[in-house]
Design brief:
The protein has about 270 residues and is of the alpha+beta class. Helices cover about 50% and strands about 15% of the residues. A 5-stranded antiparallel β-sheet has the order 4-3-2-1-5. The chain has a 3-stranded antiparallel β-sheet with strand order 7-9-8, with helices on one face. Helix 2 runs antiparallel to helix 3.
């Protein structure tokens, strides 16, 4: 390139000027046309992904990735047309990319984790999940992090690297969730009557599903009470309403029917 510029200033002939300017103009034309084509390809991919129902978070990520890759190839091709040695240029970019990759290992791991989450979709926005000892509703899935809203209305941000490599419990994916409640009754109370009362509470709650059917059974013969397992099913979005509502109604129904709910106690026998 330096030789061509020098020749341009030392040779003012028309042929010399054309020989120097022609590849530059040709490279600019190729660059302009190439950018137009890449823009058209990006719009086409966007429409195709949208028509096929690709996730809203994944769609712009893939389109931008393909667009930047095509632009990099275009700029390298244009540079080679005006005489720039692209071999050394590519080697420098490769070395720089390796250095940046080593310096940003954690960030790249989060980037890869975000890509895996978007592709395999273990959860989506709006799902109730538990991961990394955190429980919450998925608010946003970004490239590097995932944001949850906890039951206490706190925003929890988890890096995608550890999230994609850890255990994830999705409470929403199957459309139904079981609520686990335990209710204790006194040892001298009738178990069958108590079970009927608790079943009536669950059947009377409009947010408790009939399929699977609610269940009540003896879970434990504890020190001070007979613990009954109360197991209603509901939709994931109704979990807390059913949890608190059924538990409160169980207490009221047992009180109304005279069924005692004992507190921890100890019998002491005095030996004379």
């Amino acid at each position: 390139m330096l030789e061509k510029i020098t020749a341009y200033f030392t040779d003012f002939s028309v042929e010399g000027i054309i020989a120097t300017v022609k590849p530059i103009l040709l490279a600019l034309v190729v660059l302009w046309i190439g950018l137009k084509i890449i823009g058209w390809i990006s719009r086409l991919l966007e429409k195709q992904f949208k028509a096929r129902g690709v996730d809203d978070t994944l769609r712009p990520f893939v389109v931008n990735l393909i667009s930047w890759a095509l632009k990099a190839m275009l700029f390298i091709s244009a540079a080679s047309m005006i005489g720039i040695e692209t071999t050394s240029f590519i080697a420098v970019l490769g070395a720089a990319g390796l250095a940046v990759g080593l310096a940003l290992q954690g960030t790249l791991a989060n980037f890869a984790g975000g890509a895996l989450i978007m592709v395999f979709k273990p959860f989506k926005v709006g799902d109730l999940i538990e991961a990394q000892d955190q429980l919450g509703v998925v608010q946003e899935i970004q490239i590097f992090t995932t944001a949850l809203a906890s039951p206490e209305n706190k925003k929890v941000i988890i890096p995608n690297g550890i999230l994609s490599n850890g255990h994830i419990t999705n409470y929403t994916a199957l459309g139904k969730i079981r609520v686990d409640l335990n209710v204790g009754i006194a040892y001298d109370e009738d178990i069958d009557s108590a079970k009927q009362i608790l079943m009536g509470v669950m059947n009377g709650n409009d947010k408790v599903l009939s399929d699977p059917a609610p269940f009540v059974g003896v879970e434990e013969l504890a020190d001070s009470a007979v613990n009954l397992a109360v197991r209603p099913h509901c939709k994931p979005e109704h979990y807390w309403d059913v949890y608190f509502g059924v538990l409160e109604d169980c207490k009221k129904a047992l009180d109304k029917n005279g069924v005692a709910i004992p507190f921890p106690q100890m019998d002491v026998h005095m030996d004379k």
